[in-house]
Amino acid sequence: MTSSQIPTSLPASRPKRRGNNRPVTMKHSRGAPYHPQTQGKIERWHQTLKNRILLENYFLPGDLETQIEAFVGHYNHQRCHESLNNVTPADVYIGRHQAILKQRESIKQKTLEERRLHHRQRAA
Fold it and tell me: From residue 23, how far is each of 19, 28, 90 by CA, in Å?
């Protein structure tokens, strides 16, 4: 590669977009060093990761990397988070969380109506 082919600057990155064409906004927050109260979420994530990973012995680096990838995939795509109204972080990031919450609410209302009807029938 000659010096004329080497790029002098990196291309500007475009913001990621949600389904409704609004940019996804993320806020970067910094905490005081050696002050664990300000880093509670990430500290808890690391503790959970370590507790899962340390349950087994790994003799090859590839085995450990595979388990970490599996944990991250489970954490982001399968595990519902209570702080996110019991949806996955991937659903929130993509923008599907409102549709999921509406669907859950309609199921809840339908179940309540069926229970009321069943109770009225048994009482009569």
Answer: 9, 16, 16
Distant-in-sequence, close-in-space partners of 114: CB < 8 Å, separation ≥ 6: none
The pTM (predicted TM-score) of the whole model is 0.57
**80 conformational bin, left if phi > 0, alpha if psi -120 to 50, beta if neither:** beta
Length of the chain: 124
pLDDT tens-digit readout, 37-51 = 667 778 888 888 899
What is the dihedral sign for C-alpha 66, 70, 71, 75?
A: positive
Q: 32 CB contacts (<8 Å, ≥6 apart)?
A: 38
* Non-local CB neighbours of 97 within 8 Å, separated by 6+ positions: 84, 85, 87, 91
Q: Is the dihedral of CA 29, 34, 37, 39 positive or negative?
A: positive
- pLDDT single digits (tens) 57-108: 888 889 999 999 999 999 999 999 888 899 999 999 999 999 999 999 999 9
What is the spatial distance between Cα 35 and Cα 16, in angstroms, rounded to a whole number?
A: 32
